[in-house]
């Protein structure tokens, strides 16, 4: 089991590794979920996604053997549905979410995914700015979407074009 202490892990961007996750990462991803979200996904859900869901793609950010962030996306026909992006607090504002997003976009676009979508908390201005940097556009709002506090979700899309 990995214990995460926000600011005590040494960080060297040269040592950070972004890679596709596998089932052996399920426990660490679940730990990141528990740290980052008020209603985290369970380890069992993540393990099932990694083992049984052929549409699921997970990417992890690893520093010194520790998973410090992750992203999950489901590949649905020509669309990528981004489920979660999480970076533990002591590693935020170090461009790790950007790196995860770039790796995921490159990998899914190589699979033929041309558009990506996600929901983000209306109050999460930093995340919305991040997605806007990667050409995601706000397209709609889901009222009272988040069950922990009833907050609205902003739906964002990054639209590509199908090649003929």
The CATH top-level class label? Alpha Beta
Helical coverage, percent range = 25-40%
Number of helices: 4
Shape descriptor = globular
- Tally of domains: 1
Strand neighbour order, sheet with most strands: 1-2-3-4-5-7-6
Count of individual beta strands: 7
Spell out the CATH superfamily.
Answer: Gcn5-related N-acetyltransferase (GNAT)
The biggest beta sheet is recorded as: 7 strands, mixed
At CATH's second level, what is the architecture?
Answer: 3-Layer(aba) Sandwich
Give the quaternary arrangement of the chains: single chain
Distance between the termini: 48 Å
Low-confidence region ranges: 1-11
CATH domain fold name:
Aminopeptidase
């Amino acid at each position: 089991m990995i214990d995460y202490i926000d600011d005590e892990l040494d960080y060297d961007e040269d040592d950070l590794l972004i890679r596709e996750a596998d089932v052996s990462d399920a426990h660490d991803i679940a730990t990141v979920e528990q740290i980052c979200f008020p209603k985290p996904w369970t380890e069992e859900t993540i393990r099932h996604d990694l083992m049984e869901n052929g549409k699921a793609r997970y990417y992890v950010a690893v520093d010194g053997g520790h998973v410090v962030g992750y992203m999950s996306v489901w590949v649905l026909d020509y669309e990528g549905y981004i489920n979660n992006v999480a970076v533990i607090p002591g590693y935020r504002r170090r461009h790790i979410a950007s790196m995860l997003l770039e790796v995921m976009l490159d990998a899914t676009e190589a699979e033929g995914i041309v558009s990506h979508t996600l929901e983000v908390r209306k109050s999460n201005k930093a995340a919305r700015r991040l997605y806007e940097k990667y050409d995601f556009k706000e397209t709609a709002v889901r009222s009272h979407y988040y069950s922990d506090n009833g907050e609205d979700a902003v739906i964002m899309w990054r639209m590509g074009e199908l090649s003929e």
